[in-house]
Amino acid sequence: MTSPKRAQWNSRTGFILAAAGSAVGLGNVWKFPYITGENGGGAFVLVYLVCIVGVGVPVLMAEVLVGRGSRSSCVGAFRKLAGGSSPWLGVGGLAVFTSFALMSYYSTVAGWSLHYTYLSLKNLFADVDFAQAVQHFDELRGTPALGIAWQVLFTALTVLVVVAGVQKGIERWARIMMPGLLLLLLVLMIRALTMPGAGQALDFLFGMNWDKLTAAGVLEALGHSFFTLSLGMGAMITYGSYLRPRDDIASASLATAGADTLVAIMASMMLFPIVFSFGMEPGAGPGLLFVTLPQAIAQMAAGPLLSLAFFVMLVFAALTSAISMVEVIASQLIESFGMARHKAALLCGVTIIAVGAFATASGTWFDAVDYLVSNWCLPLGGLGIALFTAWRVDEALRSREFRSGSALARFYGTWLWTLKYPVPACILLVFLHAVGVV
Ligand code: TRP
């Protein structure tokens, strides 16, 4: 039944590190803190945690299950589990398209983090004031050639890892970069927590200021729980398809979501003390990472070193995520067209750069694709995978996959019920809100 040629992770830990690598990305370090800032802190964080546990984790388990149950790439997984050609294949096709679309501008921001790593190495932030920091960032965005150069380098690194394969590339680099990321983040967080603004930051993050929370904030938390766990676009299906038959899907998914949440919280506990210590605005928005932070860090003791640590960490986070986006597309090309891995990965890289260069060069394309991905593709993909797993996948296969070797087997019924009713209802709500119907 299982094709002998299909790659597998070397261990359950290998899967968890790779999947956590996909989940932990710019979303955790960049987006989560700034939407937390915009939504007033504490209560938003709590709602976000509820969304992760109640909606994100069940869908994550569903994706890993569809992957392992089919041992196929994205489209093939739907074909196999639907028992042939069916409209469900469209969900798989949408996932591959979304991976491509997201990668086309994710690589832009990832390229910025490479650029800022380079600037930190050259110690270019010393004595930079706020206006100059803004100018640096505007210059980068206003000079497409510069942005594209870094984007090309970043995409090339991603492709190299994918070319090396599941164990020797993806798993191996996740084993290096994920512990490295955690260590760097830990050092930065501890340093930040010794700053004068730490108390205020912790109050902001963990104090329950319910009056600041809006309905839109709740839906934003729900939407972000999808994005941050890399759901709705086939990444976890693809990674799940490499999970060994004896490994426990439910607990591996929980560990993945736990690691992702931990990093999001740690990143916030690192960023907000700096923000408050320098009297900056917590709701500063997307500029937080590339304007506020470098300028603030530069004023601290050992600033250049901290700044380097920060941007290297950001590169690790972005790289392990980008690897999984490219793997979704490459593994599909390998399966559908019998391409060799290196050719498939290379083709992805070249196409991503061709399209991504537009995203980098034109700010409007960037925003338009982000809108399409976040508000249409991810909710629709997530809804598709939840409905497919709950209502279409064969009960015997589903139950066997969920329970095999699992300490959480007794939660099968709860998980399935959640996936059948509340999860689709919640996703539908997010979707209708995102496209402006409610
Ligand atoms: N989870 C990633 C982050 O937080 C972003 C992301 C969304 C992603 N969907 C993905 C990464 C699919 C890889 C594959 O930054």
If classified by CATH, what would the architecture be? Up-down Bundle
Amino- and carboxy-terminal Cα gap: 46 Å
Q: Secondary-structure element sequence? A: HHHHHHHHHHHHHHHHHHH
> How much of the polypeptide forms β-strand, as a percent range?
under 5%
CATH superfamily: Amino acid/polyamine transporter I
- How many domains? The number is 1
Bound molecules: tryptophan
Mean pLDDT: 94
Q: Structural class of the secondary structure composition?
A: mainly alpha
Give structural attributes.
438 residues, mainly alpha, Amino acid/polyamine transporter I, 79% helix, 0% strand, binds tryptophan
Layout of secondary structure:
Layout: H1 12-23, H2 26-38, H3 42-70, H4 74-82, H5 89-121, H6 130-142, H7 144-163, H8 166-193, H9 198-206, H10 215-228, H11 235-240, H12 249-277, H13 287-298, H14 303-337, H15 341-361, H16 363-392, H17 395-403, H18 412-420, H19 422-434
Helix pairs in contact: 1-8, 1-12, 1-14, 2-10, 2-12, 3-4, 3-9, 3-10, 3-12, 3-16, 3-17, 3-18, 3-19, 4-5, 5-7, 5-14, 5-15, 5-16, 6-13, 7-8, 7-14, 7-15, 8-12, 8-14, 9-12, 10-19, 14-15, 15-16, 16-18, 16-19
The site of tryptophan (TRP) has 15 residues, from α1, α2, α10 and α14.
Task: Report a brief summary of the structure.
With 438 residues, the chain is mainly alpha-helical. The protein has a single domain, classed as Amino acid/polyamine transporter I (Up-down Bundle).
Describe this protein's structure.
With 438 residues, the protein is mainly alpha-helical. The chain has a single domain (12-434), classed as Up-down Bundle (Amino acid/polyamine transporter I). Helices cover 79% and strands 0% of the residues. The chain contains 19 helices and no strands. The longest helix has 35 residues, at 303-337. The protein is globular. The structure holds tryptophan.
